Every structure is written in structure tokens, then in C-alpha cells.
Amino acid sequence: MTAAEICVVGVGYVGLIQAVGLASFGQRVECVDLDPRKVEMLKRGVPPIFEEGLEEALADVIDRDLISFTTNIADARSADLFFVAVGTPTSDRTGNARLDYLDAAISSIAEIAKDGAVIAVKSTVPIGTCARFQARLDRDHPEKSLHIVSNPEFLREGTALNDFFNPERIVIGGANEVARDRVRASYAGFEDRGVPMILSDTSTSETIKYAANAFLATKVTFINEISDLVETVGGDIDQVARGIGLDSRIGPQFLKAGPGYGGSCFPKDTLALATIGRRHGVQQQIVETVIRINDSRRFRILKRIEAAMGDKISGKRLAVLGLAFKANTDDVRDSPAVDIVHALLEEGAEVRSYDPVAKFSVDHRCYSQHESIAAACEGASAVLVATEWPVFKSFDFAAIENLVERRYIFDMRRIIDLGAAWATHWDIERIGSPMQK
Ligand code: NAD
């Protein structure tokens, strides 16, 4: 096997896609992760995450000898380009993004990297982080010249591979042009295809990432507020969304009423942006309001479920369909579905869940996860659809009508076929539609 020129540090949702994607272009990639379990699985060709097409793409680059996995960063000594994709979760204390994983990753790279190596930060980091790490490298490693470049990631879980191969833009921020060009060269195929390339300083690049996520979170929150209005004044929220989304200045995406945004990015990135704004005395009032509205949404949903249960959730058995924060992923980080499970348990309900892929466990005697929709719905007083998995769209009401205690569905994703529900005499309520009296 020839020595790798590219190393990816942190092979989670972002790093693994980046590594497999670059390798599939014929570039040799060494992947480093601290988690020995992940590395062992990957060596055997088993992706530790669920992502459409990933297993096949991984098998292909393993067969072509273009990718390898290790826990030892020293194995990547030959690389001249390091992509860092470690987590930057919220610090509970400050709301800021935690940088300890990034700090550890960059320090370990700096120890082994050769002179002139480039470190491209794919992790989402507070504005100013890359400049600060650059200053530290210059101070602590005067013996070699190492360059930090910001290269934020925009993939979406669930369509991550497709997003890698069809990016809408690539953002590369850095003070050193040669370093920026090294990162740019790794994406040469995209540039040839006309994918817009934004070359900037590191602050601009870091800001683009936070601003993009904050804007999308705002869009989701906006339609959710309109949906609350429609619940009261009447109308059809899907038609409202379509009616505004057809305006090309607005666009149709992220206008689906639901339980509020979740996942590993929007909640933490909006919070980090708000914290950055406050720290710099430039309060991000829109983003702060979005966070507040989104947080209160779970409570509003709980109240609606409570009202449908005759104001008594305690002691009731409820089925929650879907645990992942959205369809086509196994990621349950900051998932609205999981928040709702917790809230229902706190209210004294018994919760039985089902998700086609995601796993979630909580040490609570009233919680259980099941292997099928039918098993989760057994004896349920209400079926709550919390994730928009396609399999729930074709929900077979007849198959479970005799299993449930009451034929009632609360559809937080507006995906259930109303006609089929009514035909089989189910009560159905949906976010964005008025409550039944
Ligand atoms: P993740 O938790 O899935 O993966 C991070 C990986 O880094 C883990 O496997 C962990 O073991 C490894 N790691 C931590 N410290 C390490 C170290 N010092 N050396 C080697 N490996 C180390 O995280 P993720 O979801 O891939 O997110 C990574 C970053 O990308 C975050 O900053 C996130 O905000 C950003 N991002 C994520 C997404 C997404 O959809 N998940 C999209 C865009 C940007």
C-alpha cells in the first residue's frame, strides 16, 4: 500500500464520508479515530453509522486499497493534508462549542506532521478558532511551518454521500494561499464541474457555516410558528408552505411544519452563534428568539398530546414511532423524538418505541424499544409519529387496529395518509391542523 497523502482525523458522520469520498476519487486516505471499536469495525468494512450507500462505497475503496484505519496518528506521518472532523458539542456551562477534541486532535497532528503540512478544519468551530490555533502552532512548533485552513462541512445526514459528491459550494478559508490551494486541489474534480468555490479568510469561512445553519433553523422555526397560527385560525399549512416556497426568493426547502429542529448541528450551532454574538457585544436577536421558540415547541406538543388524552398522560401507554432526529439516519443526538420520550416518561406515561434504524435506550422501567410498529403499538392509547420515516407513510392501520387500546394517532410530521386513517376509523391529529373538539 502506498503512503497516504491525506489523513482524516475523526471518522464520525462527517469524517467518514469525507474519507470515503476523497478515496473514491483515487486519493489514498489514512483515517485516524480515538475509538478503537469504530476503527475495528471500519477495518472490517462495517460502517459504524447508518448512511445510504456508505457500506458499498466503503467496500469499494477498501478493495482498491485506497483507505486504511488506525487509532495511531503516527501512521499518518506521510500525509501533507489533514482534515479534522472531530466533534464540537455544546459546552453545558457556556453554550459555546467545546473545543477540547479539536485541541487534542490538532496537538497530536502537530507532533507528527511534516514541515509544510496543512490542517483543514471541517468541524464547526466558533469564529476566530482557526486563527487562534494557527497562532498557537506558530508559537509551539517554530521548527516547522504548519498551516490551518477552515473548510466547513455542509452535508446532511441521510443524504451525506450524495451531498459529498454533489456539493452546492465549497468554502475554504485561510491566510496562506499555498495552504488553501492544497485543500482546493483535493476538490479539483468539483471545481472542474463548476461547483462554486469560495476562497476567504478563516473568520469568513467559520461565519458562513454558523450563518447557514442559523438561517435554516430560522426557516424551520418560521414555518412552525405559521403552523401554530393555522392550527388556530384554520387552513392547510402544507399549502401555505407550498404557496410561499414557490417564490424563488424563498425556496421550498425547510418549510415543513413539525416538532422543531433537532440533530447534532442546528441546536448546538444556533446556541454557539448566540453565545459568540453576546461575547462580542453584538447580540444575535433573531437567532436567540429562534432558539427560544424551538425549545418551547416540545412543551407545546406535550400539551397537545395531554389534551388529546383527556389531560392525563400518567399511567397511559403511548407508542412513539421514530427516534432519529430525521428520516434516513440513525442519529438521535438532540432528537425531538427523544425529547418527547423523556417528557412523556416524566409525566408518568409508559412509552414503547420503534425506529427502523436508530437505537435509543434510557434506564427507565416504563420505557422499551421494539422491533416492529405492531409490537410498539400493542396496548397503546395513542400512537405518536415523531420521525418522517417513509415506512410510516404507508402505515397499515388495519394491521394494528385490534392491537391498540385506542385508535388515535398524533402525527408530528404530517406524513400519515389521512384517507387511509379515516377509512379505518382512526382519529388522527396533526401538527399544523386544528385540534379535534
Ligand atoms: P461524530 O461525533 O460523529 O464524530 C467525531 C469523531 O471524532 C468520533 O468518531 C470521535 O471518536 C473522533 N475523535 C474525537 N477526538 C478525536 C481525536 N483527538 N483524534 C481522533 N479522533 C477523534 O461527529 P460528526 O457528527 O461527524 O461532527 C463532526 C464535526 O462536523 C462537528 O463539529 C459538527 O458540528 C460538524 N458537522 C457535522 C455535520 C453532521 O451532519 N453530523 C454536518 C456538518 C458539520
UniProtKB/TrEMBL annotation:
State its Enzyme Commission number(s). 1.1.1.22
Substrates-to-products reaction catalysed: UDP-alpha-D-glucose + 2 NAD(+) + H2O = UDP-alpha-D-glucuronate + 2 NADH + 3 H(+)
Mark the transmembrane ranges. none
Q: Where is the UDP-glucose/GDP-mannose dehydrogenase C-terminal domain?
A: 319-418
List the pathway annotation.
Nucleotide-sugar biosynthesis; UDP-alpha-D-glucuronate biosynthesis; UDP-alpha-D-glucuronate from UDP-alpha-D-glucose: step 1/1
Keyword presence, Oxidoreductase: yes
Q: Which InterPro entries match?
A: 6-PGluconate_DH-like_C_sf, NAD(P)-bd_dom_sf, UDP-Glc/GDP-Man, UDP-Glc/GDP-Man_DH_C, UDP-Glc/GDP-Man_DH_C_sf, UDP-Glc/GDP-Man_DH_dimer, UDP-Glc/GDP-Man_DH_N, UDPglc_DH_bac
Keywords of the record: NAD, Oxidoreductase
**EC class name:** oxidoreductase
Q: Which Pfam family, any one, appears in the UniProt record?
A: UDPG_MGDP_dh_C
Per the similarity annotation, which family is this?
A: Belongs to the UDP-glucose/GDP-mannose dehydrogenase family.
Q: What is this protein called?
A: UDP-glucose 6-dehydrogenase
State the organism of origin. Jiella pelagia
